[in-house]
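re: that chain from earlier
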Amino acid sequence: MRLAGMGTPGPAASAGQVPRPRAGPADPGPAAAGSSKGGSEPSTRRPPQILVVDDEPAVRRFIADALRGAGYEVVVAANGREALAIVYQQSRAPSMLVTDMEMPGMNGVELAARVRADRPGIRVVLMTGREASVARARAREGLVEGVLLKPFGLAELLDAVFDAIGAPAAD
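^ sequence. v structure.
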């Protein structure tokens, strides 16, 4: 099934499957923190948490389902105000923010700037349906780790996330 406006899955994705994570960046990021090698103790480490923000419910659901399927913990928000409440009220800050740029009220760039001002460790990937916005987002050096142009597929989404925070740790 193709989700309207989201493109088709990339070549690494087939029906009902999310592409297998590729090796993460040289700095394994939060996914590798506290990993234990060997031993028979089960891992109590939680996967990285990603906050997905988009005012379109179908887009939020597509992204959340894809990221959960890849092994990440996901929380969602419909707008910038909800996202800020999640960031500041949870005891565990997300490792990453994946947000639409064009939303009513607070736009994605403003949301990213506010989150990174207080929580500089949170990585940011912006999404937009406008090509002109891609250049504007990429010009925000130090604010964003990636920009996705809608429509995009599963492989593009997961590549952007893996590049920013690495793959979730395997059990």
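The beta strands are 49-53, 73-77, 96-100, 123-128, 146-149.
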